[in-house]
Amino acid sequence: MDTSEAAVAAHALTLADYPIRASTNQRHLVTATGAPFTYLADTPWGLASRLSQADVLEYLDDRQAKGFNTLQMMLLPMPSEWGTKNFYGDSPFNNMNPASPAITSVATTNPADASGYDYWDHVEWVIDQAGQRGIQVAAAVSWYGYGGRDWRPYMTTSAATAYGTFLGKRFGGKPHLFWILGGDNDPVGDVASVPAGMDTSDRVEATNAMANAILANESIRHLMSYHAKRRNSSARFFESQTWHTVHFAYSPETTYSYVLTDYNRATVRPVVMPESYYDARTGSPILDRRRLRAQAWWSFLSGGVGFAYGHENVWDLDSAWKTTGLPAVSATDIQRLGTFLAGSPTHLLRPDHRAGNTAKLLTSGYGSTTTNGGLDYAVSATASDASFALAYFPTTRSDIVVNLAALGGASVKLSWWNPGVGGAKTLIGTYAGSGTRALTWPSGSSDAVLVAERASTTPSGTPFRLVNLGGPALTIDGRSWEASSGAPNLTLSGTRFEDQTIPLVPATDAARAQMIRSCIYGTTAAVTIGAVPSGSYDVYLYVWEDNATKTFDVRVEGVLVQDDYVSGNPGQWKRLGPWTVSVMDGALNLATSGGTANLSGIEVYHR
Predict the structure, then answer these.
(1) Where does the Putative collagen-binding domain lie (predicted)?
(2) 8 Å CB contact between 151 and 76
C-alpha cells in the first residue's frame, strides 16, 4: 500500500470513464470500464446560475487540479437566495412553470448572442466543460429547499413529469451525469417555509414521476438519488424505488453513524455522504481543519464510497468564492485523502462495525459515540481479502490496542499516517499475526490513520502440497506444482473449466497464467487434502474471474477466512491468504459458499 503523494496519483478521468455505475454487488461505484470509482465531490451548488463562462472555467480548473472528480450543482436558481435568473439574466421556465422550459429557437454556446443563448444553453455549456475535464456533474434538478421554500411547490406531479421528460431528452445522453432529486427537504411534510398560498402537498408521487420521466427519456442510464433534510437518508423515502440507485446519507458532523446505517440497510446500495458541515461557517458548529476532514474519513471507513466537501463561500459562489473559498486549505485535506485512497484497493474495505461482524481491527481505542458528542469516536475497516485494514482516530488517545489476527493470521505490518500533513507512512513495526499490540500515539499528529498490512506473501514454511486444481503439473516461482488429475489424497468438488485466451489483470508469467486460467468452479466449490500430519499450516488460494463479478466466502477447516470476496471483472485474479490453520484430524478442508467461485490453485505450507 503506497500512500506517498509522489508515488501515487488518482487516475485522471476522461469522458470514456463515464457513466459511473454501481458494482455488481452494489457495494461500491465503478467506471464504465469497471475500475473502482471514489466519489470526491465539491458543492458549488450555484455554479450553473451564478457565474459567467469565464468564472466557471476558473472554478473548474481549480477543482480539477485539487483532485475533485465530482461537483454537485443545482440546475435551477435558488429563488429564496438568488432570485429566478442566471448570471446572464435568463430564466429557466416561462412564467415559473417547470412544464414550460424557456428555450430559444437556436442553441448556441455564445453568451454574447442574447437572443439565442438561453438559460439551458448555459447549463449545457457548464456540464460539457466539466466533462472535458473528466469531472462528473451531480445535477440537483429541482432544489425543493429548506421547508419547501424553493422549487417544491412548483413541482406538481404533472409539472415534474414534463420537466423530467425535458431533462432526459436534453441531457440524458451525456455520460458524466448523476441525478439528484429533492434538495434539503423531505418529500413528506416539511413545508414550513413554503410561501403562503402555494401548494404544500407531499412530493413522493411527484418525485417518483420526475425520476421515471428522466429514466424513460435518457439514452444513457445514470445513477440517481434524493437529497433529503439533514439527518435523513434518501432511503427513508425511496429505498424500494428502482430509480433510487445510491443511498444519500445526509448527516450532521458525526457522519459515521448515518453512513453505517445506510450501509446496513436490507436494500444494498452504494452509500454517499452528500453534505456535512462546511468550512468557514459563522454559526455553530464551527469546524477547524481537523474536524472538517474527520467527516470525510469517518464516511469512507464506515461503508461510504463518496463524500461531498463544502465551503461557505463556494456553495453559493458569493463575493469571496475566489479569494477565500477556492484557496481554503481544507480542500487540500480532501485532495490528500483522495490520493491516499488511490494507493490501495479501498473499494474492498468493509466497515468493522457493520451489522453481524465481530472481528475488528482494534480491541481497544475506539472510544464512545456518546462522549463529547461522539466527536472522539474512531472507526476502522478491513479489506474483504484481508490484505489490509485502516483505522481513523479523530483525536489523540492512549488506549489503542490492535488485534494482530485481524488479517487472517498473517504477519502484520503497522504504520501511522498523518492526514493533516500527508507524505510517507511512519513504520511502527512488523508483528506475528496473533495476539494484540498496544500502540503509542504518533508524535505531532492531532488525528491519525493507522494502516495494517500483510507483511509478506512469501511462504515461510515447508511446501506440503501445491496443486493446480484444473490443469497439469508445472513449475511456478521455482516450486513444483502437481496436477489435480490423479493426485493422491485429494478430493475436489466443482466443475472443471479452462480458458487460456482471457487476458489476466494484472498480467503475470506464463506458468502462473496457465494455472490461473484452468480451475474448478461452483457455488459450493471445495478442496479436501487427506493424509495431513497434525500441525499448523499456511494456506494460499488462487482465484480468478472469467465472466461477471461474483461475491463468495471461503472457509478453511470450517473457519471463515474470507468474507464476501468480490471476484472483479473478467481476467482479474488474486492469490488469497495466507490463512494459518491447525489440522488435527488428518484432513485439510477448504470450501466456498455464495456466488460462483473459480478456484485455480492451492498452496499448503507446513509451519
Answers:
(1) 379-452
(2) yes
